């Protein structure tokens, strides 16, 4: 398996020896010094040949001499492309994954192959065998650097377009002109040297799709600063991006068409640090992490699904905040995700969330720190509501049935359907009031016969007892010396402190008909009322 090229050296040989022997060195340390490593530059061209390929190759060779790597070149003469006969290897290096593993990273320097029509039968930059070797190299931890027209190759190979970045392929470009590149992540090693707004003269690519959802965007183009022509991408026009892809590292820069780019020290340092990132030599700015990447790691994690759902919720909130440039809010959500994820005990997930935090912290001076804890904000609104009463379904009527055992009256009983009182009034609406629900009955009538409402009584009951809510008193009938429900009687009431919420109440109804009451089918109407009380 291809391993990232992490190499560190000391200031002096003596300090290096001390370290190798396990002796604590006393000498100071300088910046990391990388051992020599190998880089492959691919300029092979089947289609339009970019003049900068030679300049790019020579610039990379010189950068290698200055920064500890050597360069192999694959740029044979093919058709109208002269290649670089003095530099190119004699045969393809893409013979096997094992043969490619000698390279810390592979640079595709605008190797246009004329496959824009996406015809699978057309000759392409890498044939099936070469492509399989390259895929194995990437999946084994290899690095990829795409420069300018690297997105104008192998159009009929979806995997390659995903490697270069989110399926984005070259679509069109206007005439070369001045434009402003805007750095989106100033914390990545390949952008730390760049101004926030970078005005340059170049050939500016439009792409077939916006890759943002799948890649970590480093630089965008401001289309208000130039004429993008047909194929314009609008307010969000990514130009440089990176990603962790199938085990490897991918970095792409869409600029660099002009020969002058390859003598510009700022542009060259930008390219060098991108190359070093793909080789695993430098790290920072979140290491090109993306939210979809972390979601994939989370989905594969084992552990409590409820915990995973909690982490997912925090990640989604962070992504939404990032899209709105609310990076302090994104940091707060990521801290919550980080804490929740500890229960899953997944080192890879923990590392990826840490990368997200590093990325977001580089985008704002605000935001909480681990020491600050996680800020929790809430907006409490006492929204307006209502005081309402409803009665459970009772069909056409409540039927009273006769009970036996009474010698001084005829008694008929039934249960009152459940009455639901709901009080959602806010403090302004309710003031200092509680509420009361009451009932009052009309007389019972059967043809010409009448039985007064004083003969109907009830015994209220709270179905859902709550503090501050009381059932009304039992009401006796006239037979027992009471007033019955001829007058309004309390079914239930609530204090101002206990009024909010839902209360279910019912009652046992009983009708006491004096002996000798005329026979017949009697009917009455029980009216229930609800009102606020002071």
Description:
- The protein has 534 residues and is α+β, with helices and mostly antiparallel strands.
- It has four domains: 1-33, no CATH class; 34-278, Class I glutamine amidotransferase (GATase) domain (Rossmann fold, 3-Layer(aba) Sandwich), CATH 3.40.50.880; 291-361; 387-533, Sandwich (Immunoglobulin-like), CATH 2.60.40.
- The protein has eleven helices and 22 strands.
- A nine-stranded mixed β-sheet has the order 2-1-3-4-11-10-9-6-7, with helices on both faces. Strands 12, 13, 14, 18 and 21 form a five-stranded antiparallel β-sheet that branches. A four-stranded antiparallel β-sheet has the order 19-20-15-22, with no helix packed on it.
- α7 packs antiparallel against α10.
- The chain is rod-shaped and about 125 Å long.
Give the total of domains: 4
Q: Biggest β-sheet, characterized?
A: 9 strands, mixed
- Shape descriptor reads rod-shaped
Helix content: 10-25%
N-to-C CA distance: 80 Å
Q: What fraction of the residues are assigned to beta strands by DSSP?
A: 25-35%
Overall CATH class of the largest domain: Alpha Beta
Question: Topology of this structure?
Answer:
Layout: H1 13-20, E1 37-42, H2 52-67, E2 69-74, H3 97-100, E3 103-109, H4 128-139, E4 143-147, H5 158-165, E5 170-172, E6 177-183, E7 197-202, E8 206-207, E9 216-222, E10 238-245, E11 248-253, H6 265-278, H7 291-300, H8 305-323, H9 327-341, H10 347-361, E12 387-391, E13 401-403, E14 410-423, H11 427-430, E15 434-441, E16 444-446, E17 449-451, E18 456-462, E19 469-471, E20 489-494, E21 501-513, E22 526-533
Parallel strand pairs: 1-2, 1-3, 3-4, 4-11
Antiparallel strand pairs: 5-8, 6-7, 6-9, 9-10, 10-11, 12-14, 13-14, 14-21, 15-20, 15-22, 16-17, 18-21, 19-20
């Amino acid at each position: 398996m291809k391993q990232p090229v992490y190499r560190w050296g000391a200031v002096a040989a003596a300090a290096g020896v001390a370290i190798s022997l396990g002796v604590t060195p006393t000498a100071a340390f300088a910046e990391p010094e990388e051992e020599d490593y190998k880089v492959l530059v691919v300029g092979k061209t089947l289609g339009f040949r970019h003049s900068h390929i030679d300049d790019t190759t020579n610039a990379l060779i010189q950068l290698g001499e200055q920064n500890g790597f050597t360069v192999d070149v694959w740029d044979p003469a093919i058709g109208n492309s002269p290649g670089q006969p003095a530099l190119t290897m004699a045969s393809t290096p893409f013979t096997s994954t094992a043969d490619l593993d000698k390279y810390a990273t592979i640079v595709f320097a605008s190797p246009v192959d004329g496959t824009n029509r996406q015809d699978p039968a057309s000759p392409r930059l890498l044939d099936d065998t070469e492509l399989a070797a390259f895929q194995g190299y990437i999946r084994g931890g290899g690095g990829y650097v795409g420069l300018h027209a690297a997105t104008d190759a192998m159009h009929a190979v979806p995997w390659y377009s995903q490697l270069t970045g989110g399926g984005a392929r070259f679509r069109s470009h206007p005439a070369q002109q001045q434009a402003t590149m805007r750095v989106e992540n100033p914390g990545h090693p390949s952008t730390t040297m760049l101004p926030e707004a970078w005005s340059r003269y170049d050939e500016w690519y439009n792409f077939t799709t916006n890759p943002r959802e799948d890649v970590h965007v480093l630089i965008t183009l401001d289309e208000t600063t130039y004429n993008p022509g047909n194929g314009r991408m609008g307010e969000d026009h990514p130009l440089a991006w990176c990603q962790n892809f199938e085990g490897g590292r991918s970095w792409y820069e869409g600029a660099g068409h002009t020969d002058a780019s390859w003598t510009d020290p700022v542009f060259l340092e930008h390219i060098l640090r991108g190359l070093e990132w793909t080789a695993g030599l430098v790290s920072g700015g979140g290491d090109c992490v993306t939210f979809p990447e972390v979601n994939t790691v989370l989905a594969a994690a084992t552990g409590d699904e409820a915990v995973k759902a909690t982490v997912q919720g925090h990640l989604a909130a962070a992504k939404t905040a990032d899209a709105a440039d609310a990076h302090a809010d994104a940091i707060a959500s990521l801290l919550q995700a980080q804490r929740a994820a500890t229960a899953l005990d997944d080192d890879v997930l923990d590392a990826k969330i840490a990368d997200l935090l590093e990325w977001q912290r580089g985008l704002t001076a605000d935001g909480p720190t681990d020491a600050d804890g996680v800020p929790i904000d809430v907006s409490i609104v006492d929204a307006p509501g209502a005081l309402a009463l409803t009665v459970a379904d009772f069909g056409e009527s409540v039927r009273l049935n006769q009970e036996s055992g009474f010698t001084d009256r005829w008694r008929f009983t039934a249960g009152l359907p459940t009455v639901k009182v709901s009080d959602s009034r806010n403090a302004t609406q309710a003031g200092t009031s509680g509420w009361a629900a009451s009932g009052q009955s009309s007389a019972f009538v059967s043809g010409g016969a009448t039985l007064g409402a004083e003969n109907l009584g009830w015994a209220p009951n709270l179905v859902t007892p709550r503090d501050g809510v009381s059932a009304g008193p039992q009401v006796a009938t006239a037979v027992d010396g009471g007033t019955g429900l001829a007058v309004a009687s309390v079914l239930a009431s609530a204090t101002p402190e206990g009024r909010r919420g839902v209360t279910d109440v019912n009652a046992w109804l009983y009708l006491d008909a004096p002996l000798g009451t005329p026979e017949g089918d009697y009917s009455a109407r029980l009216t229930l009322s609800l009102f606020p009380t002071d």
